[in-house]
């Protein structure tokens, strides 16, 4: 199914949801459930970022679009998704956030595709941290979880020697740091409001 080019005249989150749904809902319904959950989770943190809140939610919904069978090229979904989004005119920061979601640099190294990931910039910002937080605290079925439960589920699903659990073990300090920073920012925001 062809995807409409992104235009700044359309709602970014709606466009992102339409794109992710068109690529994931039929071939990968569980992945579709996950990205919808990540989008909802990102929405919980969006108010922390003002105008960038919309970007965060869109990145949450699109972060795994590279798993779509028709988009697989390098075999690493972060790169494949980012390249696809670039090809349909997605905003540059959105493309880069998708490419570098959840410490993709470590997994790219294990997969031997670091040079391809280097096409994209890791912005190392609180928005990026919040995207990682949303991904790492959402189950495969779209529900909330803890980072520890998510890591255990991934290891069980793939087996401990698969590249994905190995990447999580290597990236753990960075992943946990992003989750903790975002959690602390959310807690501080709630206490200021309440």
From TrEMBL:
Gene3D superfamilies: Hypothetical protein af1432 (1.10.3210.10). It comes from the Bacteria. InterPro entries: HD/PDEase_dom (IPR003607), HD_domain (IPR006674), HDIG_dom (IPR006675). Residues 31-108 form the HD domain. It holds the Pfam family HD. NCBIfam families: HDIG. This is HD domain-containing protein. It comes from Amycolatopsis rhizosphaerae.
């Amino acid at each position: 199914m062809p995807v409409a080019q992104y235009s700044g005249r359309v709602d970014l989150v709606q466009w992102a949801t339409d794109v992710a749904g068109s690529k994931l809902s039929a071939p990968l319904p569980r992945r579709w459930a996950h990205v919808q959950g990540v989008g909802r989770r990102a929405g919980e943190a969006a108010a922390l970022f003002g105008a960038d809140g919309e970007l965060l939610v869109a990145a949450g919904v699109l972060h795994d679009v590279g798993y779509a069978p028709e988009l697989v090229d390098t075999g690493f979904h972060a790169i494949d998704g980012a390249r696809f989004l670039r090809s349909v005119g997605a905003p540059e920061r959105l493309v880069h956030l998708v490419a570098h979601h959840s410490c993709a640099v470590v997994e790219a190294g294990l997969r031997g595709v670091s040079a391809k990931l280097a096409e994209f910039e890791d912005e190392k910002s609180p928005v990026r941290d919040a995207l990682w937080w949303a991904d790492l605290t959402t189950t495969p079925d779209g529900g909330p979880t803890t980072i520890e439960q998510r890591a255990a589920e991934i290891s069980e699903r793939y087996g401990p020697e698969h590249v994905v659990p190995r990447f999580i073990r290597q990236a753990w300090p960075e992943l946990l740091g992003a989750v903790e920073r975002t959690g602390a920012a959310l807690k501080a925001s709630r206490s200021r409001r309440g």
